[in-house]
């Protein structure tokens, strides 16, 4: 049985991301690490509250199975 392909997250290391999480929550911050389960370590994280409001959260770990999508906020380097 073959393993499903995993997203290539190495190119997003040390880059600012916007992460959508189940339950309608949103977090932005710098990706500092991940594992084979796609659990994410995000530094300088903010919980995005909407209407331009955000709450600092420091360094957080986000379980991979709760992430619904991610967006890169920095421009891609060549």
Automatic annotation (TrEMBL):
Chain's gene name: Snrpg
Signal peptide positions on this chain: none
Subcellular location: Nucleus
Annotated function: Plays a role in pre-mRNA splicing.
Pfam families: LSM (PF01423)
Domain Sm: 4-76
GO annotation, biological process: spliceosomal snRNP assembly
Organism: Vanrija pseudolonga
Protein name in UniProt: Small nuclear ribonucleoprotein G
GO CC annotation: catalytic step 2 spliceosome; precatalytic spliceosome; SMN-Sm protein complex; spliceosomal tri-snRNP complex; U1 snRNP; U12-type spliceosomal complex; U2 snRNP; U2-type prespliceosome
Keywords annotated in UniProt: mRNA processing, mRNA splicing, Nucleus, Ribonucleoprotein, RNA-binding, Spliceosome
């Amino acid at each position: 049985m073959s393993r499903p392909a995993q997203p290539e997250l190495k190119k997003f290391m040390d880059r600012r991301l916007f992460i959508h999480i189940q339950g309608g929550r949103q977090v932005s911050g710098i990706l500092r690490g991940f594992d084979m389960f796609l659990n994410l370590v995000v530094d300088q994280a903010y919980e995005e509250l909407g209407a331009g409001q955000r709450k600092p959260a420091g360094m957080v770990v986000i379980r991979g199975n709760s992430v619904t999508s991610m967006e890169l906020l920095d421009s891609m380097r060549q």
